[in-house]
Each structure stands twice: as structure tokens, then as C-alpha cells.
Amino acid sequence: MRILGQPLFFLIVFGLLLPQLDVFMVDYIEILVPGIIAMTAMLGAMRSVGGEIGISFDHDQEIRAHILLPLTMASLALEKIIYGMFQGVFSGLAVLVLAVFLFPETFTLTVTSLVVLLIIFMATGIIFGAMGLGIGSYFKPPEIMFEVMFLITMPMMFLGATFYPVDMIKEISIVLYYFTFAIPLTYVSESIRVFIAPETAGLSLLACIIGLVVSILVFIPIGIWGFKERAIK
């Protein structure tokens, strides 16, 4: 329920209630659902890894026992990132199933699209698990870490092509349009749109793949570095 609570109310209010009240277009749900799935996968991975690491280093001796194991720091850090990957997959898949249940006439899945979506969720978990690892390791105490995580996730939640396709923002603000490309969540939202609502996608699949790969290559080293620095101290 912790994972499904927020996205469930987003889907009910923005997908069912407001379109019936003619506040939003009925087909807005095709734009909204991929963004909600992406946002939930991001938060699931980032909070689980970042929160666990931050609290463990500050209060728990278990992480210190892990550090004393005959494993490299990089191996321990990768273990945490893999944990975040599973959290991302579980969170994204849970909301995807919920969306298909609530809007069966809008979203249909094939075996191929489901497999690709699972790969996207894995990439999402890796990216934001690594980001959470870096934040949880670098910022202390946990109260400060959670504040920093909040300050980082809020702009991504609202500006990472969550509630609109990225190409629609170009007519409003060219600066905001290019800023959106610096947010990893953008590529998650748009890649999900490609497979469950392709007519609403604002980026090509190739652009999404490039964005996801670059994000992985950037944030895994950052997460490992942050973990190593905190463990040494």
C-alpha cells in the first residue's frame, strides 16, 4: 500500500474523476499513466536505497559488519544498486497492473511490450537506486539526507515529462524544454509512453535509450563513489 497509495489516488482523481467533470480531456490518461508509472518506479528505488543507507550508516551496525566482509566496496555498493533495481521493477510493475485494471480499454499489453517495460523498469531502478545510494551516503544525518532527497525528487516529479510529453513544453518555454533533457526521469516517462501510448510519446525510442544509458553511466559511479567515501569515514 505504501507503493500504490499515491499513484492510486493520482489515477483515480486525474484519470477517472476530473475527465468526467470535463476538467481534463478523457484521453489525458494516456499521457498521465506512463508518467505516474515512471515516478513511482523512481521513488521506489531511490527512497528504498537512500533511506536504508542513510539510516544504516547513522544508527545500524549491520552496514558496518557488511563493510568488514571480504568484499570490495564497489561490490557492496553494486549490491545496494541491484536492490534498488528490484524495487524499481516491483514499483513500476505494480502501477502498470493497476493502470491496466482501471483502464482496460485504454491500455493493452503484448508479451513483447511487457518484456521491454520490465527492462525499462530495471534501468529505472539502477539509475535511481544509484542516485539514492549517492545521496544516502554523502548527506548526513538522515534528517538532512531526506530533505536533500525531497529537494531533488520534487523537480524531477513535476518536470520530468511526468504530466506531459516533453515536446509539448517547447512552445511554452525553450529553456524549460532543454532543462527537461537533463532530468533522467524524462527518458523513463517517454520510453514507457512509447510502448503503452505511442501516439503521445514526445521522444523517439532511440533518444530514450540514449538518455537511459547515459544516466546509468553517470549515476552508478557517483553512487559507488559516495558509498566508498562514507564507508571509509
From TrEMBL:
Residues 5-194 form the ABC-2 type transporter transmembrane domain. The chain crosses the membrane at residues 81-103, 115-138, 144-164, 176-196, 202-227. GO terms for molecular function: ABC-type transporter activity. It comes from Methanonatronarchaeum thermophilum. It is a multi-pass membrane protein. This is ABC-type multidrug transport system permease component. Keywords: Membrane, Transmembrane, Transmembrane helix. GO terms for cellular component: ATP-binding cassette (ABC) transporter complex. The keyword Amino-acid biosynthesis does not apply.
